[in-house]
């Protein structure tokens, strides 16, 4: 059974990873980006991806551009934005380390052409790992210029047990920049990609205790430079299995293939792998560890890589497919209301699952 897109809430967006090249080589990078790393999304293929999303009734018209560092392929980025903005009226967020904003004037001159091509938001990374390469001064220039041009500005901090948290980092921002920041989020490191090799295990926070959380499954699709797709905001989910390739397949066919997947819907319904862990516990002793995860995404990526555990969960959830689809759609609706400020985090309500009766409540 496929879920026709017309029945699914409009609210899906897409993040295109334009390049794996970066002028930084942060130890906590999940995608192994670094200077000289190859892998660039060609402009015509990026435009084909934009066409595909704009044809879907689920798409909300917003495109994020990320990397690597998108500013290293500035002309490329500008061309892709012009295409989406002029043809479809798309709006854009760009994620960046802000190293290009060396002076206030440079920041303004590089941002202005993007604003006229649909840029509405800048997401800037700032934490101790980025600061090994960049400066809070550049971040301050980027924040100030982006706000003066009418963009929203978000800062994202990734922390480990030994790194500084956002309150300390906020003091590093020059002048008025802190007052201009719209949102500042922080998240614990996820030890995959380069982070798995370069962040010491005792530096990874052991914080996740099975809580249901924020999950962008089926709401944000990430597209790698070679067109491979990941069904959430984490590019690394595509390493757990192939989901599809936007350069060679129709988006609707990819969506239809995964809409009824009980494993993905179990994650999307509970904001992380909460139900998969319940299923694994109900099945008896397994090799899957159930501690030491920094957050729900770390647990999710870890479990999904273990194909035998996933197969056991799939078998356990046989017969629950329709419930899980409906619950995931309900959860996606809530997430969208939360993201648009119509629900607070405290008002989010998740279902639960009784392992004895295999009933949801
Ligand atoms: S975390 Fe961001 S800035 Fe750091 S290497 Fe990776 S892509 Fe570059
Ligand atoms: S919990 Fe899993 S599916 Fe959801 S956002 Fe995190 S990695 Fe993606």
Descriptive notes:
The model has no long low-confidence stretch (mean pLDDT 93). The chain is an alpha/beta fold and 361 residues long. Helix 1 runs parallel beside helix 2, helix 3 packs across helix 5 and helix 10 runs parallel beside helix 14. The chain has an 8-stranded mixed sheet with strand order 6-5-4-3-2-1-7-8. A two-stranded antiparallel sheet has the order 9-10. Strand 3, helix 3 and strand 4 form a beta-alpha-beta unit. One iron/sulfur cluster (SF4) binds next to loops.
Could you name the key traits of this structure?
single chain, 361 residues, alpha/beta, 8-stranded mixed sheet, two-stranded antiparallel sheet, 14 helices, 37% helix, globular, binds iron/sulfur cluster
List the helices and strands and how they pair.
Layout (H helix, E strand, L loop, with lengths): L11 E6 L25 H13 L3 E8 L7 H15 L2 E6 L7 H12 L3 E7 L2 H4 L4 H13 L3 E8 L6 H5 L6 H4 L2 E6 L5 H5 L21 E4 L5 E2 L20 H8 L3 H9 L3 H9 L13 H9 L2 H10 L4 H19 L13 E2 L4 E2 L1
Parallel strand pairs: 1-2, 1-7, 2-3, 3-4, 4-5, 5-6
Antiparallel strand pairs: 7-8, 9-10
Helix pairs in contact: 1-2, 3-5, 10-14
Bound molecules: iron/sulfur cluster (2 copies).
One iron/sulfur cluster (SF4) binds next to α12.
